[in-house]
Amino acid sequence: MKRNKKSIYEPGKPQISRRHMTLNAYENAMRQFDQAVEVLGLKPNQVAMIRDPRKVIILTLPVRMDDGRIEVFTGYRVQHSIVRGPAKGGVRFHPDVTLDEVKALAFWMTMKCAVVDIPFGGGKGGVVVDPYKLSLGELERLSRRYFASLADDIGPDQDVPAPDVNTNAQIMAWFMDTYCMHFKRHLPAVVTGKPLEIGGSAGRDIATAQGVVFCLEEAAKCLSFELKACSVAVQGFGNAGSNAAKLLADKGARIIGISDVTGSYISENGIDVMDAIEWARGHNKLLTGYEKHAKVKKIEDPKAVLELDVDILIPAALENQITGENADRIKAKVIAEAANGPCTPDADEVLNKKGIFIIPDILCNAGGVTVSYFEWVQNRMGFYWTLDEVTSHLKRFMTNAFQAVYNASKEYKVPMRVAAFIVAIKRLTAAAELRGLYA
Ligand code: GLU
Questions:
Q1: Residue 105 CA: which ligand 1 atom is closest?
Q2: Is 298 a catalytic residue?
Q3: Atom of ligand 1 nearest to the CA of 90
Q4: Which of 69, 96, 281, 408 has the greatest number of CB atoms lying within 10 Å of its CB?
Q5: 136-162 pLDDT tens trace
């Protein structure tokens, strides 16, 4: 593959026309992809093989509710790529799920698996539902109906789902059980993120956060700063956000802002993260009323946390949080994207101009899928690793991926996001070419 000498990145110059400003995650994902394609100068058929999803599944899911009614939900599964291995990626339960969002997330999974060099393609699933409004029984019936409807298209060698926003180990257990009942076999490798008791992996619960911290440690080495001297703000207090805050606090960093849908909670002296986690545990996983319990100031706007004057900002919620509208007010020096797609291309343009170092999602949050890979390997071997073994393998994968992306950013003179896409696209096009997918 020939490198196109022309660099699209010139610090201080706007990269993207404001004409295209959009909050459609799929359009934004394609804009990110096209930037890297332009740098690499790919041929049209090379682009076609890795740009579009291979399969899009739309499901109608009738579920019996506790009051006897049948409610009909919509579900999606997008298999973006199987060029480097089975499709891989989580399933989210959220009222705002759209097909375009799932397509974007599936595409990012393909890129993510290629960046960390694990033998998977990319996929994603979603159900349009607010799971907080369902009883446990309703949630179980919906989960089982979703997985049963997908049974022919998923499997350890086809497509391997996992947790994502608002799904957890219990839901993965229901997924696995439904699949095993259908095929009358014990096939735990059909899904990852399972409870330990039925073939989950040690360390999978904190893997995304652990990967974020390994990336930040590498960034600290490259940019010469010390994590223990850093102030940190974390947007989103779910699995990734709360664990990242905890691991960084354990390393001596000061967590001065956290947030969730209920608002932003701020303390210049530092928040006791374990105390906040305990509080959320007792309040339906939310920080509701935390300002009455701890010495923190509450701001109603959950996005206020993004604009704090901190060294490190960790968006760990949903897509499109930092946009062309608020990017100029971001004060952090480093952004570590624990969420998928938190910065739009319009935001990137502004953030790059400001010299903010972004560790992009497809690198930064890849710890989750990397330990999912370890779980899949352990399920297939039938032999399980200790937490120390998982953590040391994860460190190796994350460090290698960070270095590959950092080196590409230097070689091509592009920001880290474009560099991450370059690393991924080169691996994908090499695999597609070897498999004979190009004329
Ligand atoms: N949902 C996670 C992600 O976006 C994990 C996916 C997986 O483990 O397959 O990376």
A1: 4
A2: no
A3: 1
A4: 408
A5: 999 999 999 999 999 999 999 999 999
